Amino acid sequence: MSEPSERRSRALTLTPADIHASSLSRYRDIVDDWDAFAEALCRPLDPLIWANPSRIGVEALRELLDEQGLDPRPVPGLPEALRLAPGVRPGQHWWYCAGLAHAQELVSQLPVRLMDLRPGQRVLDLCAAPGGKTAQIAFALDNRGTLIANDLSTARLKALQGNLDRLGVVNVSTTCSDGANWPAAGGQFDRILADVPCSSEGTLRRNAALLGRLDPDNSARLAPRQHALLRQALRRCRPGGRVLYSTCTFAPEENELIVAEILAEFGDLVRLVPVHLPEIRSAPGITQWQGRRLPQVLEGCVRLWPHQNDSGGFFMALLEKDASAPAEPPPEPEALSSEDVETWIEGLEARYGLGQYIRAHYRVHRRARRGLHLVAADHEPPRAPRAEASGLFFHRTNVRPPKPTTGGALLLGQAASGYRIELDAEQRDRYLRRESFEPSPEQRASTPLGQLFACHRGQVLGMAVLHRSGVLESLFPSRWSGCTAGGGEAYSSPSPLKEPDFLNHQHMTAK
Ligand SMILES: C[S@@+](CC[C@H](N)C(=O)[O-])C[C@H]1O[C@@H](n2cnc3c(N)ncnc32)[C@H](O)[C@@H]1O
Questions:
Q1: Mutate which of 50, 125, 137, 151 for ligand 1 pocket (most atoms within 8 A of beta carbon)
Q2: Is the entire prediction scored with pTM above 0.85?
Q3: Residue 1 pLDDT > 50, yes or no?
Q4: Are residues 160 and 243 both part of a single domain?
Q5: What would the pLDDT profile of 283-311 be if each residue is shown by its tens digit?
Q6: How far apart are CA 82 and CA 247, in angstroms?
Q7: In angstroms, rounded to a whole number, what is the distance separating the alpha carbons of residues 168 and 411?
Q8: Is the pLDDT at 505 greater than 60, yes or no?
Q9: Cα three-residue angle 247-249-253, rounded to 5 degrees
Q10: Residue 216 shares a structural domain with residue 303
């Protein structure tokens, strides 16, 4: 790697020479084109997003972003995804705040596509935060049924919840527990994603500083935990069900070697299902490493090298549990308290005409004094580990007057019978910066006083209050208020605001 001072002045841009001199050179013999690999790792990644199927179709999103000069381009093999112009920061655009899209790297979008998900399946995301894949799974299940999103980190689960709330996901219960000990009382699952913590070598294009910290010893340290997580995933999988194991690292010690050990341990009870990724370039799992011969069957794993699809690096293995494995009885779901919810729903009916809509589409429950959650009608939270939350926190009832949360507004605002205010582009940016301002006399004349859904181009952004004085107060949450760019320009605010929390967490994470 370059000298420290030069490295600082170049804001950590890497050169192929840095890659050659790093511990990544131990992969020389397993990469098909070493020079292309080293060169790809030195280029920053273009941002990718997917359209939120519950809010907008990918074509309509493409038109919206095109209009704003963001140069959205289709991504072969990923029909819901769009690649944006280099340097665009999706999280700083109003359409992102409105939950129309989610930013996720190309390779990170792939595991969920391999899980063969269908509504009605019971699914566990064992290492879920910050939740990009959880959200994909939730929509593949049609935002119904039971998806459990588990993570060991409370802080990262908070970021996950922020993402799910923004996107309007209602079929998830979150649990905070060591996935390697996920309890048998939590039941078995049709599908489990084990997107395990790893040395993250494949994320170098997003975080060049990582190069200085790469060390094969990291893989040796992580391998036992990865093994334990995959083992527990297979134990919690129902007979005939499937587990998708993935990492964003190149290290065979965290990839094929883990899968080989697990296959040996489970014997006939588990088989590797070869995967096929139409229109995506990939390489088979390796069967030779450091002079050691590995089982041929590992070719059924898949490696994604950064130069193949202009992406990060990734590894996946799809495992199926034999139908003859012993089945466990279905778990007892945790009861959700619907005590004291009707009064509040009647209040929402009286002002926004939302009562019938809520009753027809969701179950409402109260978890704590602060307010109410909406959850898919057929969702069953686990009894163990106890859920941190189930569904979307949509109505705050411990304030006067009670008010829908921003997540609640994004989910329900389109169905409201009135009490909306349409903002122009400048007003929209002021609203997202949490500024108070006076709407035009025409807007005021046609808008009732009190709480309102603030909208732009017909899409709900969150809640606002129109005061008697004529001032519109933004209730957009401070922790989301990095979403401020106007007219499609990334970050046009004169005094840069920090990115919303859920995005900071997303950038922090390996995937
Ligand atoms: C690679 S990240 C997961 C990314 C996530 N699947 C996504 O798509 O947003 C790995 C996650 O595993 C969590 N983790 C680490 N050890 C864990 C354990 N023993 N049990 C459960 N989660 C764990 C970390 O907190 C981290 O959020």
A1: 151
A2: yes
A3: no
A4: yes
A5: 999 999 999 999 999 999 999 999 999 99
A6: 23
A7: 5
A8: no
A9: 90
A10: yes
